[in-house]
């Protein structure tokens, strides 16, 4: 459905709260719009302008320098006539007065407000979570602290790190610290790594690969608490069942919690995150939300791909352009651990009506498993050679009937496409070759 800006007067002053990946991308999109609001203010509580948060993982692993994370500097905002306020946290929004307040006591009136406050690491209620040496992995400060720690403890000092959480973020943190020379144990509560994306076979291949590099992986590990070294610093992670893992550094990466309190306190409709409609408008027509702090039709976000689509919709909407509303689409997952290639989307477990196609070459470490329903792909897990991943994903989104290229489906995109395009599949070149 195409939407036009509500028939309110044009936005004079747009304020964006949060200078993270969504807020920054929104500003970049807005400056390209002829109908951009004449006055834009961005307020972020981090001390530096927005950076590429995704690249914190390669930064931690020592595969990238700090400079590579830079998006636009403060001068770019000035050039585009955008006021950038950094190091200040918005603490209060008065919906009636359309006024916000920051922790520095600044007040600012707005015509339209965008919440792009992202999320924070979810912290489990574990005794000892406040000890020194227990970290999250969300921002530049976290990455800097972990890098500093690994520099002082890695060489010859027997530095030991424990990472809690065997999802994407936990794995990237664990590999980063291992590459920096620490002895790392990773604790995963589930019975396999990346249980939301991988089936047992792919998760086992991944675990073996990481273990062969020296990472200790503990699955079905339940944390009982953290041990204090007597000076307020963490000394160990204790598991239920009595096992004790010595640790000078702990990274908690068990998930994220949307930063929705600002909207909730102001009186916006909030569930897990700020509820928005297909124009990214909250329950107050003057306030929008996007990125990890918003919730659309019960979905909250943790990857940038859908957020980029939200940005396009909201930028056009704010500039008064007619625009198709935001729609939810499936996402594919990749892991940023160098030397490990995996690609996955859709359900991890087949249901009774799924047809399961599998290719496994243990020698090469290649694994592909497809879940088909009525000849259409609903899910895929690829480990090793993932070249076919995007091809499967596109066909899955398009709902293409892959019956005609079934025999080549697991072999390669070129072969499968050839059969798919062939008007008479029975005369396909593959069959002739066979
Ligand atoms: C290490 C790491 C690796 C990742 N890798 C990937 C990946 O490979 N692929 C992928 O798709 N996604 C990845 N992600 C997730 C991706 O970074 C997020 O989905 C994305 O950053 C969300 O953008 P956002 O703007 O909603 O939130 P953020 O980028 O977190 O930005 C929110 C900003 O708002 C600020 N803020 C919060 N409250 C206030 C307030 N009251 N006042 C002012 N400012 C405030 C925050 O400090 C922050 O700067 C990764 C995340 C991390 C941490």
From TrEMBL:
Domain (FAD/NAD(P)-binding): residue spans on this chain: 13-298
Residue span, NADH-rubredoxin oxidoreductase C-terminal domain: 332-392
Keywords: FAD, Flavoprotein
Lineage top rank: taxon: Bacteria
InterPro entries for this protein: FAD-bd_OxRdtase, FAD/NAD-bd_sf, FAD/NAD-binding_dom, FAD/NAD-linked_Rdtase_dimer_sf, Rubredoxin_C
Required cofactor names: FAD
SUPFAM superfamilies: FAD/NAD(P)-binding domain (SSF51905)
Family: Belongs to the FAD-dependent oxidoreductase family.
Record protein name field: FAD-dependent oxidoreductase
Organism: Halomonas flagellata
């Amino acid at each position: 459905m195409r939407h036009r800006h509500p028939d309110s007067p044009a936005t004079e002053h747009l304020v964006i709260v949060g200078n993270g990946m969504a807020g920054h991308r929104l500003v970049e999109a807005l400056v390209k719009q002829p109908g951009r609001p004449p006055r834009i203010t961005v307020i972020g509580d981090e001390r530096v302008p927005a950076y590429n948060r995704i690249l914190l993982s390669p930064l931690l692993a020592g595969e990238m320098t700090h400079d590579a994370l830079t998006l636009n500097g403060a001068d770019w905002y000035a050039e585009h006539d955008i006021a950038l306020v950094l190091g200040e946290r918005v603490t209060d929004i008065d919906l009636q007065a359309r006024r916000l307040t920051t922790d520095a006591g600044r007040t600012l009136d707005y015509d339209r407000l965008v919440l792009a406050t992202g999320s924070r690491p979810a912290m489990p209620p574990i005794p000892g979570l406040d000890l020194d040496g227990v970290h999250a992995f969300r921002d530049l400060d976290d990455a800097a602290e972990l890098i500093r720690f690994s520099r002082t403890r890695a060489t010859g000092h027997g530095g030991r790190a424990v990472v809690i959480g065997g999802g994407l973020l936990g794995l990237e943190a664990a590999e980063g610290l291992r590459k920096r020379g620490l002895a790392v144990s990773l604790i995963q509560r589930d019975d396999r790594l990346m249980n939301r994306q991988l089936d047992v076979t792919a998760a086992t291949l991944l675990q073996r690969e990481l273990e062969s590099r020296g990472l200790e992986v503990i699955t079905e590990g339940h944390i009982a608490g953290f041990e204090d070294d007597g000076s307020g610093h963490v000394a160990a992670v204790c598991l239920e069942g009595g096992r004790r893992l010595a640790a000078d550094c702990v990274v908690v990466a068990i998930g994220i919690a949307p930063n929705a309190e600002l909207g909730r306190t102001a009186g916006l409709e909030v569930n897990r995150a700020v509820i928005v409609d297909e124009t990214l408008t909250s329950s107050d027509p003057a306030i929008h939300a996007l990125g990890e702090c918003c919730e659309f039709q019960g979905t909250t976000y943790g990857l940038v791909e859908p957020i980029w689509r939200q940005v396009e919709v909201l930028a056009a909407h704010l500039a008064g352009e007619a625009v198709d509303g935001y729609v939810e689409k499936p996402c594919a997952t990749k892991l940023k651990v160098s030397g490990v290639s995996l690609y996955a989307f859709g359900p991890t477990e087949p249901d009774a009506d799924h047809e399961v196609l599998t290719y496994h070459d243990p020698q090469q470490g290649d694994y592909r498993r497809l879940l088909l329903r009525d000849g259409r792909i609903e899910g895929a897990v690829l480990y090793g050679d993932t070249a076919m991943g995007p091809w499967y994903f596109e066909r899955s989104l398009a709902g293409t009937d892959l019956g005609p290229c079934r025999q080549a489906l697991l072999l390669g995109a070129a072969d499968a496409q050839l059969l798919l395009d062939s008007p008479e599949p029975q005369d396909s070149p593959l069959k002739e070759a066979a």
